[in-house]
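Encode chain A's predicted structure.
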Amino acid sequence: MYISKILIENFRSFEKTEVDFHEGINVLIGHNNSGKSNLLAAMALIFDNTVNRQLEVDDFYNGINVDELKNSAPKIKITVIISQSKNEDLMGDELVTVSNWLTTLEEPYTAQVQYEYFLPLGEEENYKKRVSGLSEAKEIWRIIKNEYIRYYTYKIWAGNPDNQVVVDSENLRKFDYQFLNAIRD
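Encoded structure for chain A:
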């Protein structure tokens, strides 16, 4: 199996981005501040058990307009699609690892895991009332930071996120995710 796609919404420099990967080695090339590290940080939120999954206001995409911010509390979604490899043994451990994540059963199978960082429903209504009369995004972000970020929570969903099946953390640990910082000397 291999990661075939990642979809990122409202995370750091990404408003809504989709990146396709291919089986084998993939190389990310881009200018400084183009989002390469942010893409890897998004994947780490799902696959790296050492990363703090509670985010800060600065982790949100800051280009969300005032009307959207007033309509609903901002949320971050990171979706990873995993596909069957060409020579993968269907009786092997790989399929067992993602069996609860499957979204397509016929070959080649696909599986999905999604990280979502959101304000719980009970706080959502309070948030909407609190920001309803505001007209500047900067002010709304300040309120999120000072009053609401502590209520934010995350979930990692397995398979179709509409079914709200929480991913088994034991299976996530089977992925070896390593991020090497740039060597700049």
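The two ends are 36 Å apart (CA to CA).
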